[in-house]
Every structure is written in structure tokens, then in C-alpha cells.
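User: Show me an example of a complex going from sequences to C-alpha cells.

Assistant: Sure. Here are the input components:
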Amino acid sequence: MTKLVPNPNESAWKENLKVSFPLDLSYIPIGLACGILLHAAGFNTFNTILVSLLVFSGGAQFLIASMLTINSPLLTIVLMLFFLELRYALLGSSLSKYLHGQNTLFTFFFACSLNDENYAVNYLKFSTDKKWTPKDALQVEHFTLFFWTISNLVGSLIGSALTIDLTVVHFALTALFLYMIVMQLKDLLKVFIAFLAAGLAIFFLVLTKSTLGLVAATLVASFVGFMLDKYFRSRRHKTHKKSIFLKTFKNPAGTPKE
Amino acid sequence: MKWDAMQHFLLILLCFGVALAPRFIPLAFFRKRKIPKWFMEWMEFVPICLFTSLVVKDIFINQSYAFSISGQGPELIAAVLVIGIAYWTRSMLVSVMAGLAAVFLLTFVL
């Protein structure tokens, strides 16, 4: 029986490595892909390492690579990136309540290595594990950053040694986003909102002819989701029946561990 | 125009700036203030909408920002496959690897 009790002497960093490990592993193929694409776009190995450390965003780095290959001017790339990264304002705000009382320097480092995937892990840990501290969260970020950077470095080196079909490599990011969408689909309302976002994304992207369309689609679709959620909740209050839209799906892989 | 390493370096620094600002400013701002409840409820829907938009852009929108699915057969089929695998396994690694393998094989077949 003693084996089932978590060992309090086990160092926290090992625990945090365990938490971040599935993410670390999945960063390897994506990081490799990104390194290969950056190399194809003309980045040398040093710059590939630097961009992985400083920007640390699969989406952003894929975007830089693809815009460099179509010879976009510097300012356009930076502007596009700004709109792509704007979403972190929303992700960051939703994590901020867990960082109450942290100093500015800590917040700065936390912001530097925040990205979609470690956000998802940390948000889940913060909301389900009362013992999860900002320090643990930062360590998870750093583990993912480490694996990401090394994978990019190796990808850059592979890119200089081999020729690889880039369309296949590019799909790594799409697959990653698809996975993250599926993880968010907890009820029928979310499925509906995902479809709405898809439709709006096509509409706004074609309309604006820029990634600004992504921001517009996200803002509108998420706001509709918020309003519908409010509406179903208030109706439940009156009828004492839970709307089928808000019923939580069964998890096919069994009950979540957390 | 062919870029040199120094221009790439400058690009990275600028990208660092625009990537950091939206991550740091709200995080620092709301750290000391209470976030309104409606805002948090709204934020719950943001990730799913953003990821869906990004996937849609990758699969259905071409380089000149027009709707197009020509030549996207392998990606479309692989995307459906990834959704299924993600749903059943809940594993990021398995989902991504299966997706890559599927696109790789399907580009040969189609």
C-alpha cells in the first residue's frame, strides 16, 4: 500500500518533468519539422536556436518560415506575427488570476515562455490541483522550451543534410491544433461553436485577406459561445433541467486522471 | 531579395517584441486586479475558436487568401483521422505522429 502514496521526498522538478513529458515528446516531431522549415527558409542554425528561445511558438515560427519563402517584407512578417500572437493576450489573462502576488520579473519570465500547449497543461493543473504553484508552472514551461529548442536545432541540422517533403512537415502543426481542439470539446455547445468559428474563419479570412481574419473569427465565435452559455444556464435556472447543449461528454479514454 | 543572417537576427528581435507584448501586458495587468467573471466565462471559448480558425486557414485557405480545397485531399482525410485518434486516445504524441504518417502516405496514393 505504501507504494500508492506519492513520495514526498521526490523532488518537485521530477514531478514537473512528468507533467510536461507528454508535451515534451510531442514537441520533438513538431520542433524537428519547424527546424527543417526554418532551414529551408534560409535561417542558419544560430538564428533557429534564437527564434526558438525568444519567440517559442510553433505557429509563429511556421509563419516566419513560410513568409520568408514567399519573400515577404520584414514589416509584413512582424505585423502578421503580431496578429497571430495577439491571442496570447486572451490566454495570458485567463492564467493571470493564478499569478496573484508574483513579482514583475517572475511574470516577465512566465510570459516569455508561455505558449499554447504549456498554457493548456498549466491551466488544467492550476484549475484541478490546489498544490500547483506558479513556480511549478514556470518549470513546466522551461522543460517544454528546452525540448522545443533542441528539436528545432536538430531539425535545422537535418534540413542541411537531407531534402524533405515540406508539405508533410507542415501538417505537424495542423495535427497539433486539431488535437487541442478535440481536447476542448467537452459539450455540444463547444462543438457548435467550433463549427461556427470554422465558418467565420473562412468568411473573415477571405474578406480581410490577412490573418486579421483569424482574430475577428475568434472574437466573434467565442463571444457567441459566451452568450449562448449564459442563455442555457439561465434557462436551466428556471426549468431545473440541464440543457443538452451543456451536458458533458463521456470521455472514451476513461475518467481523466486529474 | 535574399536575406542575410543579420537581417534574420533583426527579424527575430522584432518578432520577440511583438510576441512578448501580448503575453506580458495582460498577465501583468490582471495579476493585481480581479478579472471580471463575464470575462473569464468568455475566455473559456477563446482557445477552441482560435485553434479551429488556424486549422481552417491551413486546410481551406490558399496562399492568396481564397477558399480552395484543390490538392488538399491528403490533408482533409488526415485531419479527420487525427480528430478521431485524438478523441479516442487523448494522446498528443500519437495524434501528431499518426497525422504526419497519414499525410505522408496519402500524398503517394492520391
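The lines above are the inputs; the final block is the predicted structure for all two components together. Helices of chain B lie at 5-31, 37-43, 46-60, 73-89, 92-109.
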